[in-house]
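User: My instructor asked us to take a sequence, write out its structure as C-alpha cells, and then describe one feature of it. I'm not sure where to start. Here is the sequence I was given:
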Amino acid sequence: MKNLSILQKVLATENEVRNSIESARVESQAKIKENNKRANDEANRILSDARKEEERIISEALKNANTMNENTKKELEQLRLNFKKENKNKIKEGFEFVLERI
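Assistant: Let's start with the prediction itself. The C-alpha cells for your sequence are:
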C-alpha cells in the first residue's frame, strides 16, 4: 500500500512536470509570435519612414531642378536678347559705315 502511494505521487509529479513543460512550450511560442509581430511592425514602420524620406528628397530635387530650369530659360532668353541687340548695333554700324563711304 505504501508503495502504491509512492507510485501515485511519482506519477502525479511526472504529470505536473509534463504539464509545466507543455505550458512553458506554449508560452514560449506565444512570446516568439509576439516578438515576431513586434519586429515586423518595427520593420514596416522603418520602411514607411524611409519611403517618406525618399519621397521628400525626390520632391526637393524636382523642385530644385525646376528652379534651375526656369533660371536657365531666363538666362538663355537674356542671352538671346543681348545677341539680337549686339547684332542690331553691328548691322546699324555697318550701314552707317557704308553710308559714310558712299
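For the description part of your assignment, you could build on this observation: Residues 3 and 9 are 10 Å apart (CA to CA). Try explaining in your own words what that tells you about the chain.
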